[in-house]
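subagent[fold] <- orchestrator: predict structure for attached chain, return tokens only, no commentary.
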Amino acid sequence: MSDDRTRAHVFVSGTVQGVYYRASTRDAARERSVDGWVKNLDDGRVEAVFEGPESAVEEMIDWCHTGSSAASVDDVEVEYDAPAGASGFQVRW
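subagent[fold] -> orchestrator:
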């Protein structure tokens, strides 16, 4: 793994469920070759983990502030972790 890999744990709040946010996140992450996953939480937020080159992870965090075209994002919380070797990007249930 390259030294410039980073891992961000992201929580997105607002109107982010039922608006194709997870599928759009998956597509955006794959376009940027970012690994990780995304899922809905019971409290109405979306949780995601992005792992990859620092610049691509930062692009994904920026993307989360808008999300899918039908989403209305109120807040994006980010916690950085040590890379864990994620591979691929999946929507979790």
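orchestrator: received. Logging for downstream: The chain has a mean pLDDT of 96. The CA atoms of residues 24 and 68 lie 6 Å apart.
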